Amino acid sequence: MEYYDLLTGIIICLGDADDERSGILKLLEVLLSSERSTKEKKKILQEDFGIKMTQELESEVSEMCNLSEGVEQKGIAKGIITSIRNLMESMGWSIEQAMDALQIPMEERNDYLNMLKK
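Above: the chain's sequence. Below: its structure in token form.
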């Protein structure tokens, strides 16, 4: 307990790119995958790793799924912001013209306007 809040580094040797993923690497791939659904992740954890799904563990797996989706959405938003700025600079367009060209839905435009102000 005395070391609970301390940062611990872990190094995992990934091996060759051609290796079939197994063990800890497969577990990490399943947990961190943005392509797998929560239901699929739970099934793999139970069947392949023998991990019994308790209410608490199900909640944590769902939270990890939401985390990866959040990271993905943040990356998409960052790319759109960069595209808006690039269009404004290279084409001399207004923010509205750049958003029109990128076909950004009206309901999302205020969010991007706020991000551009930062």
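The radius of gyration is 21 Å.
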